[in-house]
Amino acid sequence: MGYKVAFLGPRATFTDLAAAKLFPDEERMPLQTIPACFEAVQENQADIALIPIENTLEGSVNITLDYLVHEVDLPIQGEVVAPISQHLMVHPAHRDHWESAETIFSHSHAIAQCHKFLHKNLRGAACEAMTSTAAAAQYVLAHPELKIAAIANELAAKEYNLEIVKHNIHDFAHNHTRFIAVSKKEIDFGSHSEQENGAKTTLMVTLPADHPGALHQVLSAFSWRKLNLSKIESRPMKTGLGNYFFIIDINMEMDHVLIPSTIAELEALGCSVKVLGSYPSFLITNQAKSFC
Ligand SMILES: O=C(O)C(=O)Cc1ccccc1
């Protein structure tokens, strides 16, 4: 299709793995931060950005929600859910004394996913957040003189010549991350083999100020129509303490009746509603298979 796909880089992040699965024949463009990925699409340097939005163990990636709502006007055109396995890796020179690592580098969500492991096995070590797991792996490769380790995936260990000293250190087995694909145009997801898993519609809803029971009324607009919600999350409006908006995911694609009439009902209650996207959902079943 000739798409340019921006993703949170460098090579071998979890986002890169998901991008390679969903867009196997497209050009992938690693960028250093999540805001840079959004901006690349906004400014037409990329057609699509694939961005982590939510993790089973750690919840939402707040910078992603905030950029979607406050900084850019880019619709969600697809999502993909991928299993996440975290591994502890060191420079090969430190393979036999990894327990003496003084600082562990990774993405903040990866560190959070391995808290119990770190508490038990590397209690004295400091944790430092990097822009991504692969950036942490790159840093460990560049600093053989330091007693450090990275938490990242198997491909990052290969790509950055590190030694995995502990496999599967994430604290809970069902560790998955959800990534969204944003684009100005509808995406043709033609040429990949990942499983399609229904569709979703994401709304941003702002409640009227000081309206008793407003959230209850909002939820009842979905409930009596039997619209199945897969997520509701509040985020600050950034206009003052106590001002929040809600991101609501409905397990259904935009139709001509149910969702439009829900939106009309919410607006009649004094809410403002923005559709952030209506899109297909994909499921990656075995992330590492095609790489390792
Ligand atoms: O840092 C990465 O590799 C990412 O792609 C972000 C991320 C971090 C932790 C779990 C899933 C995705």
UniProtKB/TrEMBL annotation:
UniProt key word S-adenosyl-L-methionine: no
Q: Under the GO molecular function aspect, what terms does this record hold? A: prephenate dehydratase activity
InterPro entries attached here?
ACT-like_dom_sf, ACT_dom, Chor_mutase/pphenate_deHydtase, Preph_deHydtase, Preph_deHydtase_CS
- Put simply, this protein is called Prephenate dehydratase
Which stretches are transmembrane?
Answer: none
From the UniProt record, list the reaction(s) this protein catalyses. prephenate + H(+) = 3-phenylpyruvate + CO2 + H2O
Q: In which pathway does it act?
A: Amino-acid biosynthesis; L-phenylalanine biosynthesis; phenylpyruvate from prephenate: step 1/1
Q: EC annotation?
A: 4.2.1.51
Q: Which GO terms describe its cellular component?
A: cytoplasm
Cite the Prephenate dehydratase domain residue spans from the record. 4-184
What's a BP term from Gene Ontology annotated to this protein?
L-phenylalanine biosynthetic process
Which PANTHER family does the UniProt entry name for this protein? PREPHENATE DEHYDRATASE P PROTEIN, PREPHENATE DEHYDRATASE-RELATED
Q: Name the keywords, alphabetized.
A: Amino-acid biosynthesis, Aromatic amino acid biosynthesis, Lyase, Phenylalanine biosynthesis
The positions annotated as site (Essential for prephenate dehydratase activity) read T177
Q: Where is the ACT domain?
A: 203-280
Please tell me whether the keyword Oxidoreductase is annotated for this protein: no
What is its EC class? lyase
Which Pfam families does this chain map to? ACT, PDT
